[in-house]
Amino acid sequence: MKKVCVIGGGAAGLMAAYAAGEKGHEVLLFEKNEKLGKKIYITGKGRCNFTNDVAPEEFLQNVVRGEKFLRGAIYSFPSQKTIEFFERYGLSVKIERGNRAFPVSDHASDVTKTLEKACKSVGVSIRLNEKVEKILSTSENTSTMSDIGIMSRIVKLKTDKEEYDCDVVIVATGGLSYPSTGSTGDGYAFAKTLGHTVTDLKCGLCGLNLTGDDFKELQGLTLKNVSLTVKSGAKTVYSDFGEALFTHFGISGPIVLSASSVINRMPLQALAVTLDLKPALDEQTLDKRLLREFEQYKNKQIFNALTELLPQKLISFVLKASGVSERKPVNAVMKEERGRLVKTLKNLPLRIKSLRGFEEAIVTSGGISLSEINPKTMESKKISGLKFCGEVLDVDAFTGGFNMQIAFATGYAAGSTI
Ligand SMILES: Cc1cc2nc3c(=O)[nH]c(=O)nc-3n(C[C@H](O)[C@H](O)[C@H](O)COP(=O)(O)OP(=O)(O)OC[C@H]3O[C@@H](n4cnc5c(N)ncnc54)[C@H](O)[C@@H]3O)c2cc1C
């Protein structure tokens, strides 16, 4: 039996503690907040979309960073095992659109309660309001051994209250996003002190700030069936269909959040980002449709001819981007102007300034360098007994329950292989 200390009472830490407890180890879990799973409470708009019920291969297609590293963990502990786990500990689960799994109660707190119940059933001791400040390895503890040729190992953990001897430390401290939930990057500092590399940290699944002021008139406008394309030179780096939403800062919504995770390491201002407002119509069909509308509204100004095609708020914006005056009478619109309008409807340009900040990002992209971690056990290749799981690792995925499943699968791998 080993003495295991888990740092962090979020999705990854709770699952890791459970898995280690199930194996019969003595497990202490430290959470600096007054309660467990503060971030879990706000997931899935308070309903917690805790996994996505798809087969591992399809799951892995939704991983943005770390797909190869996560392969083993996701195959060993796939979404179906997560669902079974929750059901075994009394949570009723429902699957919604897009294979998203939620508690039937629609209360994220029930997910946390179930994780806590599972941990307690295998004897995990939970220490709330206790912040881990330092992890000590043999290389730091000079009284133990010289580490020439010998891999150092974990010996101790220091909190703001006490010191604990331990054989294994599992770091499950999360990333940097929504720091008010306790995810303040402590794990990166521990890792660096212990000789690990932390890759560049960027916001993932976040909105995009737009340049200029003209988009502000669109604030509050939701576009349901549009397609977003991001190009770097001639190369399409992202393209998806779905919902986008204009806000006071720029643009957000599901397809924008996903795009942000893909482009967050690229020079944003050099990217060509466009919205196809009519993805179901090709240019020719759209032109015919415009001609029909123009015929109907031939004695009106062009603004009025577009009211059936576009939401009111968007008409002036699109006409401005096409270089056509909104007051122009329809019967004076030239063929070439109509052509420009068609092109704009299919490729409305958005000028991206920057990503929104960590305060609003759903995940952190970047983290503990995966080349330094054993993907089967989540153990450090540098320090024996040191493990990492969840968002603190350099892994992230799209929305849909994938990020929590990554936390559960890596947490389970860390705890069950001690
Ligand atoms: C608004 C929002 C909605 C989301 N919705 C979903 C969703 O529906 N589905 C989904 O899959 N993903 C969702 N995510 C992402 C998902 O919540 C995270 O990826 C996941 O919870 C990460 O789990 P974790 O355990 O690795 O880290 P965290 O949940 O961040 O947990 C880390 C814990 O460690 C504690 N801690 C940190 N440092 C210390 C220390 N020094 N000592 C003691 N304790 C410490 C923190 O207080 C925290 O409780 C959402 C994220 C946000 C912000």
In CATH, what is the class of the largest domain?
Alpha Beta
Classification by helices and strands: alpha+beta
- Major sheet size, sense and barrel closure: 7 strands, antiparallel
Q: What's the architecture of the largest domain, going by CATH?
A: 3-Layer(bba) Sandwich
Say what the CATH topology of the largest domain is. Answer: FAD/NAD(P)-binding domain
β-strand amount: 15-25%
Q: Can you characterise this structure?
A:
- The protein is an alpha+beta fold.
- The chain has 3 domains: 3-202 and 364-416, FAD/NAD(P)-binding domain, CATH 3.50.50.60; 204-279 and 349-355, Translation factors (Elongation Factor Tu (Ef-tu), domain 3, Beta Barrel); 283-348, Helicase, Ruva Protein, domain 3.
- The protein contains 12 helices and 23 strands.
- The chain has helices at 11-22, 56-60, 67-76, 79-88, 108-121, 186-193, 254-263, 283-296, 302-305, 312-322, 335-346, 402-416, and strands at 3-7, 26-30, 51-52, 63-65, 93-96, 100-103, 125-127, 132-137, 152-159, 163-165, 168-171, 202-204, 208-210, 222-232, 235-246, 250-252, 272-276, 348-350, 352-355, 363-365, 383-384, 386-388, 396-397.
- The strands form 6 sheets. It has a 7-stranded antiparallel β-sheet with strand order 18-17-14-15-16-13-19. Strands 7-2-1-11-22 form a 5-stranded parallel β-sheet, with helices on one face.
- Strand 5 and strand 6 form a beta hairpin.
- Helix 1 packs parallel to helix 5 and helix 1 packs parallel to helix 12 (402-416).
- The longest helix is centred in the last third of the chain and has 15 residues, at 402-416.
- It starts with a strand and ends with a helix.
- Residues 142-149 have low confidence and may be disordered.
- The structure holds flavin-adenine dinucleotide (FAD).
